[in-house]
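Fold it.
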Amino acid sequence: MICGEPKSISDRLLESEARSLTVKLKTARRAKDTAAVDLKRKIEIVRRRQLIVRRMLDAIVYFMCGQYVVFIRRLALRDDVRPIDPEGLAHIVELAGRLNEQDPKSVYLAADLTTSVHIGDLVQIEADSPLRWCVRILEVKEGNINRILAEKLAAGESPEDLGGDMGDKAARQAERMLRQQRRLEGFSDFVHAGQGIDPRTNQTLRRTPDRPPTSGYQPELRTLIEKAAEAGQHILKVDDCLILGAARAETLREPRQVTAWHAFFHYNHPDMTCLLSTPRAQEERDLLEKEPVIDLVEHTYRATWGSPVFTWGTLDRVCDLLTGRVMVYAMLDMAAFMKRGARFGLRMEWVKGRRAEMLKQTGGTTWIPGSPRASAIRVETPGTAPFELLSGFFARIFLELAKPDSLLKGLLDLGPDLRKAQEEITGHGNASP
């Protein structure tokens, strides 16, 4: 059992059903049986159901961490959803079940069953008081070999020493244990001392001073979804640069995202005549590519952090989102965002060329959608030296559901701290925060 769920749910998470169907699919394909199409569809349904339950566990972690995204983001070592390894995970799941039965004041989650926690083996959520929770990331050392290796490493022996005494396999396991230990220690330093090591990049990470929670557009999103469910479609704009649209699936022509993309473009440019049915159709397609639209539900599903879909509306509306009956799309008009920044006294420009390539190679950013092949935006604030915003900053708008104006206002206060963090970590000013 996992956190007290029925064993049937545990079995689904451990992929027994998906693997059984996969075996049947391979047999059907070899026999050229038409049942293969139906089996493939069933596997997709099982995988989807598995992801929904895993994201429910993520939601527990999200809220128990106080929705503090700066911490939650550092629990993942990669952006995509890791597959479940049922053989390697079974004993951790069993241990979590035993601990949940023995410790009524805590909830234990198997980390690998979440999509958001990639460090440690267990997440312990303990009630310190009626109004306060304590979240711990725990390593599990089971088996005689692991216990022996842990003791020897604690005594100061190196993996190389252990390789000479216990063989190459033991040395490799010792190296993995040390990496896990360093990740946990670096993350703990970041949480408690404000400066540590990023578990993903192994780079020094400095936390800027705590600020009030970022203002989000959850109320607008909930209203949008409700109106779309009632009327078929609804669209709105937040802070003059973020466009949100929702629609019942049957009201959108296939391919649905392209239909939404086209609708967003003309909503954002109401004076422009549609060219798609004219010889100049390619001109409009080129313009569409400069303002990419994302499927907000799928985007949230596939990310390892962010505001859980389960909070986006009533139970009926959440079920509509999970089953695809209601679609939600979003687009950030980057030109309008940068103009919006100017109203707050922020001068912004794209980081392109060699500097953009160098930043991307660090692994700390990627190409920003809708940009002219830029991996960051250079920002100048009144009275401070410039600093750079990486792609993760803009991801907060779609995953944290942060209002653009809230982020822009925060830069006015955080600018000096971001700059100081750059200089402390890199020793010079042209580095990413």
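The radius of gyration is 24 Å.
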